[in-house]
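User: Sequence recovery, please. Input:
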């Protein structure tokens, strides 16, 4: 009898040698899910731990329960403003499965255990008697004088009435990656409310239909960009209250903008004062003990995804953000690091190395469970995986042998652009390599394409604009100032972005400010820069100044997004080559109903340039990067109609244009 192959093996015959391993991946997931359902009735109930653990009000009992999982602790005590911070007056009692509990009745504590007051839990264990922040706490604040963090009681409701937003089925995503704290021009912290009032209209105006929010979960060090999380259930208080964040999300929904959270479940801080490290006195409560529990590159700790209480903590965290804050999905950070013991740094040169050698099976099962849960709560929610290793099945369904993500990040694309700008002269760019990088993805694997993200904007690297124009941006961005370096930079900045969105995937991402070529890098306040916020902000005045050239890049980005959306270009899985002209560095392709012409040559402008088009007829230009509106040289007439006639030698319809250097054109048949 012929073997029935899992879906990802049917799609990719290269996986035939590991078909048994693919089946094992499915089997491990099913086994783990069945054990969860057996013990907890459903995956959905299993992920309700945040309603049981932590501090929750019980209407029937008329009081507050505080529960904490700390199996190796000797004793726990709750302390805070309510008991004048007496570390031993309110002991918890051990109930079952390593869980501790205390009940505070409403009648006794209604005037002291109040909204806004601060709490900690004192843990007596092998490593001493230490104050800790409850693991499931929903708000954490930092004292301005001592700089110490504490949990804060937060008893308030938010009116979500009328917020029935869902990402429309099959809508293509145009994602605006953002960081609330650095989203304002002032030298200081931006807030959720400022973002809602000032940034959302700009995002909407520019055609983006989703924001991807960084640094939402509380993190003790601002300069970590939000990737060293300490308190997983607490939206960072730096930017405002939980209600302020909810207001931002509801306002975005009212504007038709989805809100995706950049969630960090790949690792956590080593901090003992703020985080989970040594919470019950051991290094093995939430994490793998010893060296396996430490990330060698990130100076952080790694979760033990094989432990039931750990995946319950993480899955409850996923559900919490979806249900309590109405997020529309997640971008999972560090997925490539999670899935391998070598954290994605090992050489993967055979299919076996994706499924056997060095593979962290428990982490993969956790990611499958997370995707299952997310899509059970909200079938329209979006999940995006950050993985540069090319793990097979990353964005395939679990029953096909996949991990269940909706999209993978096309991380090789921005790496390629930066490498090209750093290492190659313009005349040495290989157009075949450019095409390959944009289209190198399996059928059915939805990819988020991007030319640059926050990674390329950090100190130690440069944005595309800065790589292209560098210090010339300081002196030659006035509209009346002619400068060859700036001219080249503006031309290529537009072309690189259009080439990426037109070929690279089924969704597109841009980091805030990069749409107008934001100058310089991001450098968060730190000792080395005297704790300055100068480089941790966005200078919106640059793009709104009519005397500066930044407006040209913003104009082009808006027109580019509009063109791609209007003609549903991302509905088509791939572009189709029409011409690859190495000598003139020109690439012509079609995608959907549009024809794209890219001339990357530094000098060659060719009159009466001929190329094949899909069908005969009259074509018109609908986007021209050389237009003066976009900072170009206006060398091409956009009023002309370009007739495509059959070439009797080739038998194919052929169109002729003036093919100017460093120009991208988009044409449509009338």
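Assistant: Recovered sequence (670 residues):
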């Amino acid at each position: 009898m012929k073997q029935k192959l899992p879906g990802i093996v049917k799609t990719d015959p290269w996986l035939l040698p590991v078909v048994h391993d693919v089946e094992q991946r499915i089997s491990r997931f099913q086994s783990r899910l069945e054990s969860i359902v057996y013990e907890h009735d459903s995956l959905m109930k299993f992920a309700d731990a945040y309603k049981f653990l932590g501090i929750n009000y019980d209407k029937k009992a008329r009081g507050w329960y505080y529960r904490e999982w700390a199996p190796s602790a000797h004793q726990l005590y709750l302390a805070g403003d309510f008991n004048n911070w007496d570390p031993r007056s309110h002991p918890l009692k051990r109930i079952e499965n390593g869980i501790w509990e205390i009940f505070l009745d409403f009648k006794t504590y209604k005037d002291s255990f109040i909204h806004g007051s601060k709490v900690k839990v004192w843990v007596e264990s092998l490593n001493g008697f230490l104050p800790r922040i409850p693991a499931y706490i929903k708000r954490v604040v930092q004292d301005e004088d001592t700089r110490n963090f504490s949990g804060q009681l937060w008893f308030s409701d938010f009116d979500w009435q009328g917020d029935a937003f869902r990402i429309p089925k099959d809508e293509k995503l145009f994602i605006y990656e953002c960081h609330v704290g650095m989203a304002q021009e002032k030298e200081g912290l931006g807030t959720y409310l400022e973002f809602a009032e000032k940034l959302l209209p700009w995002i909407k105006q520019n055609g983006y239909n989703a924001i991807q929010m960084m640094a939402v979960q509380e993190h003790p060090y601002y300069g970590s960009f939000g990737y060293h999380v300490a308190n997983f259930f607490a939206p960072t208080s730096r930017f405002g209250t939980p209600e302020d964040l909810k207001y931002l999300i509801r306002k975005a929904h009212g504007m038709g903008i989805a809100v995706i959270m950049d969630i960090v479940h790949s690792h956590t801080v080593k901090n003992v004062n703020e985080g989970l490290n040594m919470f019950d006195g051991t290094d093995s409560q939430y994490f793998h003990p010893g060296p396996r529990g430490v990330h060698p590159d990130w100076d952080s700790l790694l979760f033990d995804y094989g432990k039931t209480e750990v995946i319950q903590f993480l899955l409850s965290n996923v559900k919490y953000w979806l249900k309590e804050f109405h997020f529309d999905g997640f971008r999972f950070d560090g997925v490539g690091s999670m899935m391998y013991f070598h954290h994605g740094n090992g050489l993967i040169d055979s299919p076996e190395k994706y499924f056997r050698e060095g593979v962290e099976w428990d982490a993969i099962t956790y990611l499958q469970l997370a995707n299952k849960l997310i899509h059970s709560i909200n079938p329209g929610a979006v999940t995006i995986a950050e993985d540069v290793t090319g793990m097979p099945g990353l964005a395939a369904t679990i029953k096909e042998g996949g991990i269940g993500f909706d999209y993978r990040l096309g991380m090789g694309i921005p790496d390629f652009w930066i490498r090209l700008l750093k290492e190659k002269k313009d005349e040495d760019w290989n157009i075949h390599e450019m095409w390959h990088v944009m289209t190198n993805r399996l059928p059915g694997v939805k990819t988020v394409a991007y030319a640059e993200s926050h990674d390329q904007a950090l100190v130690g690297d440069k944005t595309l604009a800065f790589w292209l124009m560098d210090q010339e941006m300081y002196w030659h961005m006035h509209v009346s100032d002619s400068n060859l370096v700036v001219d080249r930079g503006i031309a290529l900045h537009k072309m690189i972005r259009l080439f990426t969105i037109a070929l690279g995937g089924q969704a597109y991402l841009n980091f805030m400010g990069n749409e107008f070529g934001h100058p310089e890098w991001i450098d968060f306040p730190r000792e080395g820069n005297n704790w300055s916020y100068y480089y941790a902000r966005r200078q919106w005045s640059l793009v709104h100044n009519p005397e500066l050239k930044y407006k040209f890049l913003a104009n082009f980005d808006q027109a580019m997004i509009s063109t791609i959306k209007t003609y549903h270009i991302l509905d088509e899985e791939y572009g189709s080559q029409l011409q690859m002209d190495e000598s003139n560095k020109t690439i012509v392709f079609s995608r959907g109903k549009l024809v794209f012409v890219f001339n990357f040559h530094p000098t060659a402008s060719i009159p009466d340039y001929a190329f094949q088009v899909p069908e005969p007829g009259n074509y018109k230009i609908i986007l021209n990067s050389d237009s003066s509106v976009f900072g170009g040289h206006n060398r091409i007439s956009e009023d002309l109609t370009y007739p495509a006639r059959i070439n009797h030698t080739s038998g194919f319809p052929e169109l002729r244009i003036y093919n100017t250097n460093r120009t991208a054109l988009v044409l449509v048949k009338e």
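The mean pLDDT is 96.
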